[in-house]
Protein: Putative hydrolase MhqD
Organism: Meiothermus luteus
Amino acid sequence: MSGLSFVHRFEPGPRPCLLLLLHGTGGNEDDLVPLAQRLAPGVPLLAPRGKVLENGAPRFFRRLAPGVFDEADLRVQAADLAAFVGAAQGHYGLEGLPVYAMGYSNGANMAAALLLLHPSLLEGALLLRPVLPLRPHPLPDLSGKAVYVAAGEKDPWAPRERVEALLESLERAGARVEAAWWPAGHALETPELAAARAWLARRLP
């Protein structure tokens, strides 16, 4: 991995941007690559593996119980991931290109945390089944950032009030937020992936 601080997978592409792929609990650096290649063909992909293990399952930050996040650890892990992304851009010759995140579940929560804690890192994010991971004070300035949130109406892991808290925080920070509620649980359904592809096609250079 050339000295970079996360086990990761990089897939080059000709388009002038970078898509950061953040897997869900128990996933790895390969999980989202095939999906991203379908949703954003030709975009360079950077897919790190979460460093935190929960009963052997990789995650991007600790949780104290289901739905209860370790905010101190989240802040540390978000800073580590942000530094890794910057180093990887230099390593792979992508300095200065806009970075977007695509995250699912725990990875979507980490992508939201990157927006809220390290707003200069990302131009936008596709958040699949996220909740509000933390409440930074003060809120960052996310003017010009584009965020798409795909939520499931029957998702036990991302209840509506926690998703709406995320939407409110992002909008108050100035992000251009699009949210779609799907008649689904935590798993992703085919129609919403088509909508996600359309959003990425409008946003990515």
